[in-house]
């Protein structure tokens, strides 16, 4: 059982951490193995330059054909190149942490794993960490224990930079999640979701009835709701940092460069007559009288390939990303008690998420997905999200801490 994971500094099955801290004895980069791990004969390591168009195309093709599928093999994630560039070149990223494996003879890219640098806070500890994502082995090379080699190699490269912790998410359960979130789905396009088998047609219902039930208004309704702009970055940063400080674990977004990258750099635009896909959609509420930013909300676009359907081949899915609201902050005096603030926040988040769904439906998304994290439980059901069969497990490498109930995302399942 877990031949690989039982050798790694992670909480082992059945254990539960009480004390917070690293699992391994402290080391320095000088203690780290200097040579790459050995690959099976016929394969070689290849650091992938994701800013190089041809190399990005290779990663994109590998993932489009071989990355995560649902249990019934109906859908497969179809990250755009724009998305991958956004996710892999966040402030502080290291090119050496974008690791490929090629067939020596042909140069074909057959496996990939990536890390970016993120500052994390868990309870009261804050540290630089790696966020590991896009682990992928070509379908023809599965079950040959290549994944452990990729994981050990990325660990080695991260450790060489004096970073000893990592965060990652997976659909599979391995030792040992600190939190598990459930996926919820908000139908935005009933005829298509029923046709492709994503949503059932409830007994006794009709498509027309579903369409009416899930129809959003054509315009947003919160006064001052608008797209986020460059000049909002400092205010959005302060708001988001303050909002996230309420949760047991979160990415710190400690400088405005992070805010700019994660909420503005993925905007769609036309370059040399070519359409660059919009990845992240960020909105703020600017108070019409004070001109202050009181709220923000965002989502990203992550389509899935619909496998073997005669009519549709892409599911246009949006994923709820970060949001924040000052509704929960007490106005100084102790008069605002916790219950009142929570009720205020509940109301505000429902209004905000409703406007976000309005934007998403108007923009042609088929579904909005969200996880049971942050304050999502305040609005998911009211905004007609329904529970799905998917779960996402959250993991830390070389960090022990008590598990988090209900769960809280970090940089999300990007
Ligand atoms: C997984 N997703 O348990 P044991 S998520 C971690 N994350 O080891 P083989 C995984 N471990 O149990 P295959 C894993 N999936 O024997 C499998 N494993 O100890 C473990 N799928 O290796 C598994 N992408 O090579 C087992 O399996 C061992 O050929 C088996 O390859 C696995 O990106 C995989 O779902 C996932 O491409 C590459 O199935 C392949 O099946 C595939 O025989 C479709 O491996 C795509 C897919 C995973 C998406 C993701 C996060 C990855 C996190 C990796 C762990 C990072 C640790 C921190 C490192 C930095 C530390 C510092 C500092
Ligand atoms: Mg393998």
Taking Cα atoms only, what radius of gyration do you get, to the nearest Å? 22 Å
Helix content: 10-25%
**Secondary-structure-derived class:** alpha+beta
Counting structural domains, the number is 2
Quaternary structure state of the chains depicted: single chain
* CATH architecture term of the largest domain: 3-Layer(aba) Sandwich
Q: Sheet bearing the most strands, described?
A: 13 strands, mixed
Class of the largest domain in CATH? Answer: Alpha Beta
State the fourth-level CATH superfamily of the largest domain.
Answer: Gcn5-related N-acetyltransferase (GNAT)
**Could you report the average pLDDT, rounded to the nearest whole number?**
94
Distance between the termini: 29 Å
Order of helices and strands: EHEHEEEHEEHHEHEHEEEEEEEHEE
Q: Could you describe the 3D structure shown?
A:
- This protein is α+β, with helices and mostly antiparallel strands.
- It has two domains: 5-177, Aminopeptidase (3-Layer(aba) Sandwich); 180-395, 3-Layer(aba) Sandwich (Aminopeptidase).
- 23% of the residues lie in helices and 28% in strands.
- It contains eight helices and 18 strands.
- It has helices at 53-66, 81-88, 146-159, 190-195, 207-214, 233-244, 256-264, 338-362; strands at 43-47, 75-77, 98-103, 109-122, 125-137, 166-170, 179-187, 225-227, 249-251, 269-271, 274-276, 280-286, 293-301, 304-306, 314-315, 317-325, 367-371, 385-397.
- Strands 1, 3, 4, 5, 6, 7, 8, 9, 12, 13, 16, 17 and 18 form a 13-stranded mixed beta sheet that branches. Strands 2-14-15 form a three-stranded antiparallel beta sheet, covered by helices on one side.
- The longest helix has 25 residues, at 338-362.
- The two termini are 29 Å apart.
- It binds tetradec-13-ynoic acid - COA thioester and magnesium ion (MG).
- The site of tetradec-13-ynoic acid - COA thioester has 35 residues, from strand 5, helix 3 and strand 6.
- Magnesium ion binds at residues 137, 141-147.
């Amino acid at each position: 059982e877990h031949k690989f994971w039982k050798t790694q500094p992670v909480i082992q099955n059945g254990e539960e951490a009480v004390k917070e801290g690293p699992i391994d004895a402290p080391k320095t980069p000088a203690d780290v193995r200097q040579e790459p791990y050995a690959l099976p004969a016929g394969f070689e390591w290849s650091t992938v330059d994701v800013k190089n168009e041809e190399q990005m195309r290779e990663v994109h093709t590998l993932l489009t054909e071989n990355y995560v599928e649902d249990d019934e093999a109906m859908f497969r994630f179809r990250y755009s190149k724009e998305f991958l560039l956004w996710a892999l070149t966040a402030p502080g990223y290291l090119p050496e942490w974008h690791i490929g494996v090629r067939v020596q003879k042909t140069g074909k890219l057959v496996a990939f794993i990536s890390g970016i640098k993120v500052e994390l806070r868990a309870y009261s500890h804050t540290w630089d960490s790696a966020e590991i994502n896009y682990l992928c082995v070509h379908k023809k090379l599965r079950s040959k224990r290549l994944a452990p080699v990729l994981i050990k190699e990325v660990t080695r490269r991260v450790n060489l930079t004096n970073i000893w912790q990592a965060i990652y998410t997976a659909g599979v359960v391995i030792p040992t999640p600190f939190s598990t979130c459930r996926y919820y789905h908000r139908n935005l396009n009933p005829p298509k979701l029923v046709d492709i088998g994503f949503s059932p047609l409830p007994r006794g219902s009709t498509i027309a009835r579903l369409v009416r039930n899930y129809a959003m208004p054509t315009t947003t309704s919160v006064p001052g709701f608008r797209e986020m702009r460059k000049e909002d970055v400092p205010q959005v940063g302060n708001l988001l940092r303050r909002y996230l400080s309420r949760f047991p674990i979160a990415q710190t977004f400690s400088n405005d460069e992070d805010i700019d990258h994660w909420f503005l750099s993925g905007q769609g635009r036309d370059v040399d007559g070519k359409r660059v896909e919009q990845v992240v959609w960020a909105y703020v509420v600017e108070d019409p009288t004070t001109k202050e930013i009181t709220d923000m909300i965002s989502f990203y676009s992550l389509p899935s390939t619909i496998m073997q359907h005669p009519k549709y081949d892409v599911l246009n899915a949006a994923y709820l990303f970060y949001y924040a609201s000052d509704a929960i902050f007490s106005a100084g005096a102790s008069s605002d008690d916790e219950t009142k603030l929570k009720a205020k926040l509940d109301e505000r988040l429902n209004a905000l998420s409703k406007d976000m769904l309005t934007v998403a439906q108007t923009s042609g998304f088929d579904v909005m997905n969200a996880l049971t994290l942050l304050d999502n439980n305040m609005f998911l059901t009211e905004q007609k999200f329904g529970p799905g069969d998917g779960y996402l497990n959250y993991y830390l490498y070389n960090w022990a801490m008590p598990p988090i109930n209900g769960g809280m995302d970090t940089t999300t399942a990007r």
